[in-house]
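2024-03-11 09:14:02 INFO receiving multi-entity request
2024-03-11 09:14:02 INFO entity count = four
2024-03-11 09:14:03 INFO echoing inputs for audit
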Amino acid sequence: MSLRHGLLGLLAEGPASGYDLARRFQEVLGQIWPAQHPKIYAELGRLADEGLIEVDSEGPRRRKAYRITEAGEAEIRRWLSTEDVDHTMRLQSLLRSLFFWLMEPDDLRRHLDDEARFFADAAARYRAYAEAKDRGDFGDSPQTRSMRITIEAAVRIYQALADWAEWAKTAPK
Amino acid sequence: MSLRHGLLGLLAEGPASGYDLARRFQEVLGQIWPAQHPKIYAELGRLADEGLIEVDSEGPRRRKAYRITEAGEAEIRRWLSTEDVDHTMRLQSLLRSLFFWLMEPDDLRRHLDDEARFFADAAARYRAYAEAKDRGDFGDSPQTRSMRITIEAAVRIYQALADWAEWAKTAPK
DNA sequence: GGCTCACATGTCCTTTGGTACATGTCCTCT
DNA sequence: AGAGGACATGTACCAAAGGACATGTGAGCC
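2024-03-11 09:21:47 INFO inference complete, emitting structure
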């Protein structure tokens, strides 16, 4: 359960509403850490109950922005420095690849083309994002520097998968 | 829900018991597609109810091996060729990297060392596996050729992440 | 003034994943 | 003969994820 810590971490950057957080999850973490708004609102409620965050302001359209508390900041730091990292990935593309031998050659080629395109597009998208950051489009705070590191990981993973899909086309059937 | 199709795919290679399947999931797909035995037995029951698999043989120690049926093979093929791939990954390492700015430099360095080591070890483990396959240690069936492709993906992803962790150490804080 | 759209928050229900617990069986070693 | 360990299957429960549905609000435009 690290949605909890994902929210705390984002709130450590500054106050935000559930809506804001849902959008940030979607934009930055799209495929890498999906989170739907129902889960986010529910978790925010729980975090507030436990005193890890508190209501910062209420705005128009029932908007409710939260702010991290000292207890919350202590908790996210504790998580970052003492909890073990969960390294599971659950990549459906890899699970499927185990069963390529069941596919017709034509289907497989099409599939690998689609996969290569998808991963190359994703890599390109994150690469563009990285370049914008390097140009300074988003300023140069510690937060953006961390984000730059995250983006770099995304670029490298997607590029590795794109290369893999291309390589797989040449592998003996 | 692709545990279902993971099981069907593995059973397409030949009859196996829940225990066998749990071990194969653990060995080959360890971090890439974890599955606990309770889920596996439950899913096997459902697959049998739906006629996608059937009991092949009963052995000592209550062992029950299943065999894929024609309907089951049709279903796995249908899944492979017509269902969209789910590309979500949920990599906790990347989520955490967003919050590196909250960590003390010493903690962060230690963390990146651990991450680099973990990913490099994983890459090495899969690389050794790949080499054994290339030497022909596991024969040369279509199934092992598909497995070789899966392993190649694992090698590339883990290597990319290991390189990333090393790179992150040099990135400006 | 009314329409539409983005903003904003939530409930409810189903599926999936994971942990704990429980049980039975055969083999090997001492 | 007995102990321990790997083999083998399951139940029960809880946490997490995801989709469907519902509702209210302010801004901009025609």
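2024-03-11 09:21:48 INFO post-check: Residues 92-170 of chain B form one domain.
2024-03-11 09:21:48 INFO post-check: The longest strand of chain B covers residues 53-58.
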